[in-house]
Specification:
By secondary structure, the chain is α+β, with helices and mostly antiparallel strands. It is 50% helix and 12% strand.
């Protein structure tokens, strides 16, 4: 994967974030996109070999659109400043997310503001066995890779059905259950980047599996 070419394209796009420029450089865009999809296909195959429960997600299925949704966010630029994709993307599950962009690069996963039923199920799972989740996120290698859970809005009071003195009340107040490993452009351009992605995937896997099992309750 020629990530240098990908970054060059995104940098030019963000300086000329309009349909006219994109139309004039459509061939370049498709070349970069196809290259990224091929790289995702390689990751998909490797993860399928190494994780027996992996949900096959070809690059074309995992990649996100580069267009911003202007219907709901009319003030955003026409195009995103990154290429993003989800792997291990089973329906209604926490996938493994890759984000390679001009201003931000990350490897992430979990649930960001899931629908009400899924959120309730996760909270019920924490109520039943929150100790297991705490064991996962407090593991030294997990903390070194991701730190704490992704900071998002939290409830002020305990969610309905739970008391404020619940032993895992801080977890229960979360509206999102996700982790992020921030990486740099230099990390992406490094020859060992594929290994970084794989190592991060497997470090995150127990966390995602916990959430997915809880979400399906």
């Amino acid at each position: 994967m020629n990530f240098k070419n990908l970054f060059n394209f995104l940098e030019k796009l963000q300086k000329n974030n309009n349909k006219e420029w994109m139309d004039a450089n459509r061939k370049w865009y498709h070349q970069v996109r196809n290259d990224f999809i091929a790289w995702l296909d390689g990751l998909d195959a490797t993860l399928a070999e190494q994780d027996r429960d992996y949900y096959a997600t070809p690059g074309k299925k995992g990649i996100n659109r580069i267009n911003n949704n202007l219907m709901f966010h009319p003030n955003k630029p026409v195009y995103k400043d990154h290429f993003g994709a989800g792997l291990d993307k089973a329906p209604r599950s926490a996938d493994f997310y890759l984000h390679i962009g001009v201003n931000e690069c990350m490897l992430a996963g979990g649930f960001w503001r899931p629908e009400t039923k899924v959120l309730k199920n996760i909270r019920d799972g924490i109520d039943y066995n929150g100790e297991e989740l705490m064991k996962i996120i407090n593991k030294k290698s997990f903390q070194k890779t991701f730190g704490d859970l992704y900071e998002d809005e939290k409830l002020i009071n305990a969610p309905k059905g739970f008391s404020n003195d619940h032993p895992h009340i801080d977890l229960l107040k979360n509206k999102s259950f996700a982790v992020v490993r921030e990486i740099t452009k230099q990390d992406v351009l490094h020859p060992d980047f594929d290994q970084t992605v794989l190592t991060t995937y497997f470090e995150m896997l127990p966390f995602r599996r916990y959430l997915n099992e809880a979400a399906m309750l």
